[in-house]
TrEMBL record:
Belongs to the ABC transporter superfamily. Pfam families: ABC_tran. It comes from the Bacteria. Keywords: ATP-binding, Nucleotide-binding, Transport. It comes from Bogoriella caseilytica. This is ABC-2 type transport system ATP-binding protein.
Length: 334
């Protein structure tokens, strides 16, 4: 069972409202806010009018099909690209205005962006020394990401998964309040995914803002609590995973009963749909399983099955993004 405390539904205004005590001190300085963010490359609009908020204390997944504009948004967040319109800030400040960015925002946009001839240790040491970070932190992080035993090996020979770990270590070097990671799970084996999930969950529980992208719902479902879903540069859905699932479509309740006809009539009401898929079987949306049970009881209808069926995360993702897939399976661009 997930034993994480639930501090939910905090953001109500421009900044999150009441936070868990752990997050309160960090909250305002580590909220990511995107307002009407737009990026055009010539004729191509990569990001269009994106507004969202990423709160501290939870992992937020940034989800969208290939080419949706995730990397472009993250590049603008960390000052590598300039918005055509709108803005994106951390704690109300643009990344480029932060006095000591590495200590405030940890970034991994491309895990391969490492000098291949440098060892993992020297890669981190160079970053630490140029940012006045003590050498001991390098050792600590190498152990923390599981690269302690290969610290002396050249990063050029690292697998994709090892590179991701090194990238995460570099992002954490300044002990930042905010983490921005582009596709951090990409290339990790199942053990690596589990490790990353635990690490990011722990960092969020410490009150940090953890913002990570993926084009795979199944990956983010394991890690994220909040989601921002975009397609072709535009906002498609945002909120908690539950909110996003609910926005994709109603869940249905399956009822198996020898009294299907009578119960179907009794269940009718505003916003209720009752479909009979086979004899003795009803698929009901617009009523909860509990409501259906109570109505059946009042009607004296016998129930053989009463089960709720929500959309799976993958189904929800397909539904939300179905009109926004830039590169479809036939390989043709829309
Ligand atoms: N420098 C650029 N010049 C022109 N078009 C660009 C540039 N950078 C990105 N694009 C286009 O902007 C769109 C968004 O790209 P982006 O890399 O942000 O998407 P993404 O969601 O990160 O995709 P993926 O999951 O494949 O990494 C794409 O159509 C891409 O081709």
């Amino acid at each position: 069972m997930d034993a994480r405390p639930r501090y939910r539904k905090a953001p109500t205004g421009p900044y999150p409202g009441p936070m868990c005590p752990r997050c309160a001190a960090r909250s305002v300085s580590s909220v990511i806010i995107s307002e009407h963010l737009t990026k055009r490359y010539g004729e191509k609009t990569a990001v269009e009018d994106l507004s969202f908020l990423v709160r501290p204390g939870v992992v937020t997944g940034f989800l969208g099909p290939n080419g949706a504009g995730k990397s472009t948004t993250m590049r603008m967040l960390v000052g590598l690209d300039r918005p055509t319109d709108g803005h994106i800030s951390v704690g109300g400040q643009r990344y480029s205005d932060l006095p000591d960015p590495l200590r405030h925002v940890g970034v991994m946009l491309d895990a391969r962006a490492v000098h291949p001839g440098r060892t993992a240790y020297h890669h981190l040491l160079a970053l630490a020394q140029s940012n006045n970070i003590p050498r001991a932190r390098v050792h600590h992080l190498l152990d923390m990401v599981g690269l302690g035993s290969v610290a002396g090996r050249r990063a050029g020979g690292f697998s994709l998964g090892m590179g991701q770990r090194l990238g995460v270590a570099a992002a954490l070097l300044g002990d930042p309040e905010v983490l921005v990671l582009d596709e951090p799970v990409n290339g990790l084996d199942p053990d690596g995914v589990l490790w990353m999930r635990r690490l990011l969950t722990r960092l969020a529980l410490e009150g940090r803002t953890v913002f990570l992208s993926s084009h795979l719902m199944s990956e983010l479902a394991l890690i994220a609590e909040d989601l921002v879903v975009i397609g072709q540069g535009k906002m498609l859905a945002s909120g908690t995973v539950e909110d996003v699932l609910a926005s994709a479509g109603p869940s249905t309740v399956r009822v198996t009963t020898p009294d299907a006809g009578r119960l179907a009539t009794a269940l009718q009401g505003p916003g209720v749909t009752v479909a009979s898929t086979e004899q003795h079987r009803l698929e009901v949306s617009g009523r909860t399983a509990a409501e259906i049970g109570e109505i059946a009881s009042a009607e004296g209808a016998i129930l053989h099955e009463l089960s709720a069926h929500g959309l799976t995360l993958e189904e929800a993702f397909m539904t939300i993004t179905q009109n926004s897939v830039e590169y479809n399976t036939e390989g043709t661009n829309r």
